[in-house]
Every structure is written in C-alpha cells, then in structure tokens.
C-alpha cells in the first residue's frame, strides 16, 4: 500500500481537478530543478508545493487551501528574488508560479495595456512595440517577471524620465487573503491598491495589470566609458565626477546611468532618450569622460535596439542563470552622497581586500529625476527622495566565505563613511541580513502598511521573511 495523499495535496489537487502539470511536491522527481527553480543557489528553500495556476479562480482556490491549512503563500513571475522569496524565502510555503498568466491586450484609444502578471519584461517590450510602438519604464533584465518587478518598484534607465514601473499601474486584478478575486484602483479598494504598489508580496496575488504606456522614444543615445586594468583607486576621481553629474537636480532627466566596479576596472554606462543633437545640447557629454577612443563609445539606437544593448550589459553582471551569490545594497539621499576623500578611501579598501572570486561587481545606480517630484506617500514605495542606490554582488561556485566577507566588508566600510542618516534600500534588493528590514524597505510608509495588513490579511497568509506584518493590537 502506498502513502495516502496529505491534506495539502488533497486540497491542491482538488483545486486543479487533478490536472497534469498543475502542482509539484517535494517528492516529485527533480522538484528543485523543474518546479522550485531557485535563483540564488546559496539559499536553499523547500516549498510545501509549487502550483502553476491557469486562472484567477485557480489562485483563489489555492489561497483558500493555505487559509484552511495555516500555510503561507508567495507568488513568482520571473523568479529573480535574491533570497528566493517567490518560493517563500523559507521552507514550507505554498509557491505560485504565474508562468501561465500571459494575457496581453492594448486599448488603442486610451493606450492602456492589460498584461498578465507572469509576463517577462522582454516579452512585454515586444508586445508593446507590436501594438502601437508603446513603452513603459522598467529594469534592464528581460527575464524579470512583471508581477514582482512592478509591485516592488521597478527601477531602470527610464526611471529618471518616466518614474518607476509601478508608477504605470492604473488597476489590477488581485486575489486577496480570503480568496476573493477583486479589482483594485484609486476608486475601488484604494487602500489595497496603494499597498500593492510597492509591497504586494504581503497583500495579495496579482493576476493582471492595467498599465498606462508612453510612445516609444524615436532615438536613443547610449554612452559607455571604461577604465581597464588599473586599480579601483584610479577610478575614484571618475566616480566623483559621475556622481556630481547624476546628483545634480538640473541634469537632463532623459539620461539614466550606472557606474560599475569590477575585477579589471570600472565602467560608466548611460542611456539618453533623445537624439544625438539633444544629448550634446544637454551638457552631459561635457561632464563625462570623452566617449571616443578605445575606452569609450557612443551608440545611436532605436528603442528596441537600446533595450537589447541594456540587456547585454545586464547579462555581463548578473544574468538569468541561477547561481550562488551574495548581495548587499543601500540607498542614498542627495545629502548622503560621499565626498571625494571618502570615495578614494572606499575604493582603496576594495584594492586592498581579498575577494575570493573573480566574479564580483559593485554597481552604483542613479535615481532621482521625476521620482523626486512624487510624494513618498503616493504609493507604498517610499524611496522617492533617493538619488542613488548601490548593489554589490559576489558570485562563486561554490560561494566562499572569503567572498561573503568581502561583500559584507564593503557594505560595512560604506556605512562607516556614509552620512549617519543614510538609511534604507530598494525593496527589490532583498537581503536577509538587514536589521529591521521592513523599516528599511518601506520607511515612512510602514505604519500605514501594517494597518492595512491588519485589515486585509490579519493571519499573514501572504508572507516572506521581509514582507509587511500586520499591526499589533
């Protein structure tokens, strides 16, 4: 006699009407590689079940099973969480893989797009282009899923010009903690809608988005300058100059840029959404190292070409491939940015510290622009006053303690030289070592989020190690 199905399996299989391919369990062959599909191989997570729903009704049924059995639920669209939060972030959760939610419709009167939450950014760009040459702001990795990206913030090179990805959300279809399928927008369930725009992992499972879109930019200028085979300290002055440009509130908002430190040097990469003549007239080229010669280049692209170029650069540093890695991050207001002496000291520390790997990257990503115009309490995403983010990555197969010490040590050194008021980080750069992570992710909006959570999900069904918790009585 075989083992009888557990109460969880009975409940889930009933929701899926015993469909083949609906759910995988820990005893399913190749469970980790074909069902769980972790992104960070240094973070082992074993969900109680991974479900691939096809409809909002399926999602509703699974959430009701979780409520009945006292289990937690998380969803993933692309599955790029640094701590594998899409499959729960810790053992025993119900994970919803939203891969089947690929709906796309474009209203050519309002230019609003209705998009399934399992759609990945690269596919979304193609569909927007093919249906009226439209566009939205988002990050550069085409494999990232819309469901997680658009509900945590969604920063990218267009954000200084158009805002975050979540600033494009007009309405969602969402399954709430009681299993109800609801619409949420500024008029309908406005409290829930506010919370979903920045903290969705603690409030519901979004099945589809209605997004506002923009006309594609007709021309895109892409700038790149590298400093190779030198010490990091040799790039400190270049970083200071770049930081001054990107922190200047008068810098043209059509320009987004990142500065990357890597084993053989440093790189400035930037994207200007306009013509070459407009780029030159902006004054930006005069504030950056010249793009001519072997160390720099200037590429004139169309919209889709620029996205491909950005994706190729992204793949050089942290691609779609699952791997063991460690990451840290921090957000900076304008008054928190480092002066030249502190920058030089920090870069020298990098030179003098063992890394334990040849695969490490430290990325400074410029923010600000139109995002600073938006009040911090307009959505759950609170970091409207931040003008710079940093992220560090150390990759190893296996990931060594020396690499972990290097990445953690850099973060410690940065905090030591930063303004004492430097606090918080982008919720998409999840980090289980953060002190008071909810406060760092949602800052001034956390109290309101906890009150909404208490009403909308008092049992904390939608839960991961960093998600919003219900307010205490």
From TrEMBL:
One of its GO terms (molecular function) is FAD binding. The keyword Lipid biosynthesis does not apply. It comes from the Eukaryota. The keyword Oxidoreductase applies. Residues 43-216 form the FAD-binding PCMH-type domain. Keywords: FAD, Flavoprotein, Oxidoreductase. Belongs to the oxygen-dependent FAD-linked oxidoreductase family. This is FAD-binding PCMH-type domain-containing protein. It comes from Podospora australis.
